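hey all, quick one before standup. I had two proteins in the batch that finished overnight and I want to keep them in one place so we stop losing track of which output belongs to which input. First protein below, input sequence then structure tokens straight from the run.
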Amino acid sequence: MIRKIARPMLASVFVADGVDTLMNQQDHLDGAREVLSKVRAVVPAQYSQLVPKDPQTAVQAVAGTKVAAGGALAVGFLPRVSATVLAATAIPTMISRHAFWETQY
């Protein structure tokens, strides 16, 4: 019974964030550009071409993934896979928006 309530509640945060990101893509482009440059610096040269060059495409892909995986989690479709995908999309979001380790005191 609790899962029927908890999953949609948890998923609603990701769906809302994905929709907000899709509607306000310009607000997220600078963060995406920074994350993509960090990823290119870490990834070996033979795989660097797999990293998207356009930050807007990356923003749209992450936002669409959040909406799709959040919706799947909310209805209980492949909940473990959906939760794993949402956890994976939280990593670039955390690096681009919530970089608390870079703040100055």
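OK second protein, same deal, sequence then tokens:
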Amino acid sequence: HIFDLARFYLGEVKRVHAVSASLGRSSTKDYDVEDASVVNLEFKSGAVANISSTTLLDDMPGRADLVLYGEKFQMEHGGSLKLRTPGELQEISSRQDPYLNEDRVFIEAVRTGKKKAILSSYDDAFRTLAVTLAASQSMRTGKPVRL
């Protein structure tokens, strides 16, 4: 969902360049998941982003945060929403687990066929899929992919 968040805040992606590393650390047959990857995104808005991920943590807790930097501000979207400006920090948090809530909404929509509570349209999900498929293509070819 980090790609969804990046698109939500920064707009549509125009170019993707990604690299990955596979260290051969899995004994699982036909294991084909990268151990680490970095995806660079260029947005039509002029913004750029870098998304990194890894499977190297095993049972250690990881992070799924998006940090945005702008002129005189930093915003972190993770377990809470934090906005830092010169001399000030604002934080919005919830006592509820957002990932659990997201799963509940999705399961209820599948169970009942009612999609009203799902906030992302099929078209929007398709555009995010195009970005992640472009990242996979870039990892395979070593070249940037234009969307």
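Flagging for whoever picks this up: The beta strands are 13-21, 36-43, 48-54, 66-70, 73-77, 81-85, 88-92, 145-146. The radius of gyration is 17 Å.
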